[in-house]
Amino acid sequence: MALVNHFKKFSRSVLNIASNYSKYTSNTMLPFLQTTRGASTTQQLSEKQEVNVTFVRANGERIKAKGKVGDTILDIVVNNEIDLDGYGACEGTLTCSTCHLIFSKEVYDALPNEPTDEELDMLDLAYELTDTSRLGCQIVMTKKLDGIEVRVPSTINDARA
Questions:
Q1: Which of 1, 82, 134, 148 is the least buried, fewest Cβ under 10 Å from its Cβ?
Q2: pLDDT tens across 138-159, in order?
Q3: pLDDT tens digits for 20-54?
Q4: Which is it for the CA torsion 25, 27, 28, 30, positive or negative?
């Protein structure tokens, strides 16, 4: 009931503003509104820079994809609708190992963060595990990672199954 009363008060205030709109567009208020309309104290959001990733399947097929700085590799797979069977089944919640990827040593060393204990636990369940394995859902792309190649294992293990 309290929610209904709160909604009624909110509705009345919105309707009151709409009915009083003509007051704010009168000749006395219009110059004030026009001068304040263009003044903004927030900075404009800059466009995120584009990054490229090449996925190399076990059969040698190369898939090029684009993303943005700040995207995870899982985001890039999903946003580009790349068909990697079962990839990212848990949607990045660290409850499976289906987004397991293998990096070259150079790229692995350049990754912006170390794997967490939770990621390492999931990687222990992945097939074809290497010293440079990571979960794509945990890799946030930076401009420094633009153009990387990642190897996709031939099989996946969904740890949830």
A1: 1
A2: 999 999 999 999 999 998 877 6
A3: 544 444 455 455 444 444 444 444 555 789 999 99
A4: positive
- The tens digit of pLDDT for each residue in 76-86 reads 999 999 999 88
Whether 52 and 66 have beta carbons less than 8 Å apart is answered as: yes
CA dihedral (124, 125, 129, 134) positive or negative: negative
**How far apart are alpha carbons 80 and 58 in whole angstroms?**
20
Domains and CATH numbers, the chain: 50-151 (3.10.20.30)
Six-digit token string for 138: 């945990």
Tell me whether residue 58 is exposed, middle or buried, using C-beta atoms within 10 angstroms of its C-beta: 0 to 12, 13 to 18, 19 or more: exposed
Residue 16 dihedral angles phi and psi, to the nearest 5°: -65, -40
What value does the mean pLDDT take over residues 118-130? 95
Can you name the residues that pair with 50 across neighbouring β-strands? Answer: 68
Q: Which residue has the tokens 């794997």?
A: 115
Residue 2 in 3-state DSSP? helix
Whole-structure pTM value: 0.69
Pairing label, strands 133-135, 100-103: antiparallel
Residue type for position 10:
F
